């Protein structure tokens, strides 16, 4: 039986969320004019909290506002690389690194399963030594550059399970061939935690449901 560990990104592998810092970083590293849109982004997040629209619309708006319609390309890649390098250097939980090292040593395949955009999630996964990354996908233009528009649906909640099942099929595996362990910081990931054979809720003040374990990764 193959063993696979499914890791969430924000506040599980990382100490802090990554999406808003990514938007601010990209806006600041450009001409700086896009930073004028930050108040609108704050209002947009408040609108999301008030349930006026969903995560997909919020993400699409933030990317268009603070990065642009096209979000990857030769001019943008150095900024993306700088963001990823900073996250890897300063925003990874010590306990996450320790768990990943232990899983690798035990022959477990590591898969990052995140709602973060593939714009930077793929590079973060590669930098951390993951075997695969299942992130929110984005549409591409004729040149192959990623766009602000999401391709399909935001990789969140039950969508994560569907994407993992798609990935599993592409690997030529069936569910009964695999023992899954899932690590995430929030009960909103209940679908992936319940899908896994072992479920671990990560956080200093984690309150796991019956059948879930808990772990504090804030220290090694």
Explain what the structure shows.
By secondary structure, this protein is of the alpha/beta class. Helices cover 44% and strands 20% of the residues. It contains 9 helices and 8 strands. The protein has a 6-stranded parallel sheet, with helices on both faces. A two-stranded antiparallel sheet has the order 4-5. Helix 9 links the parallel strand 6 and strand 7. Helix 5 packs across helix 7.
Task: Write a brief caption for the model.
By secondary structure, this protein is an alpha/beta fold. Helices cover 44% and strands 20% of the residues.
Could you outline the blueprint of secondary structure elements for this entry?
Blueprint lengths: L1 E6 L1 H5 L5 H11 L8 H12 L5 H12 L10 H14 L3 H12 L3 E9 H11 L3 E5 L1 E3 L5 E5 L7 H13 L7 E7 L5 H6 L2 E5 L9 E4 L5
Parallel strand pairs: 1-2, 1-6, 2-3, 6-7, 7-8
Antiparallel strand pairs: 4-5
Helix pairs in contact: 3-4, 5-7
């Amino acid at each position: 039986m193959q063993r696979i560990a499914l890791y969430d990104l924000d506040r599980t592998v990382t100490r802090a969320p990554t999406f808003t810092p990514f938007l601010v970083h990209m806006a600041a590293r450009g001409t700086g004019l896009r930073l004028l849109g930050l108040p609108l982004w704050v209002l947009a997040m408040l609108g999301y909290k008030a349930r006026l629209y969903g995560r997909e619309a919020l993400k699409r708006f933030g990317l268009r506002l603070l990065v642009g319609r096209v979000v990857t390309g030769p001019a943008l890649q150095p900024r993306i690389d700088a963001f990823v390098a900073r996250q890897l250097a300063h925003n990874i939980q010590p306990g996450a690194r320790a768990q990943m090292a232990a899983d690798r040593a035990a022959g477990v395949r590591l898969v990052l399963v995140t709602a973060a955009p593939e714009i930077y999630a793929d590079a973060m996964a590669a930098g951390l030594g993951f075997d695969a990354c299942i992130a929110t996908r984005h549409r591409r233009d004729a040149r192959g550059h990623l766009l602000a528009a999401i391709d399909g649906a935001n990789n969140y909640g039950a969508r994560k399970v569907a994407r993992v099942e798609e990935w599993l099929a592409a690997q030529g595996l069936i569910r009964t061939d695999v023992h899954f362990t899932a690590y995430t910081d929030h009960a909103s990931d209940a679908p992936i935690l319940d899908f896994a054979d072992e479920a671990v809720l990560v956080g200093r003040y984690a309150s796991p449901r019956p059948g879930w374990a808990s772990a504090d990764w804030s220290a090694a």
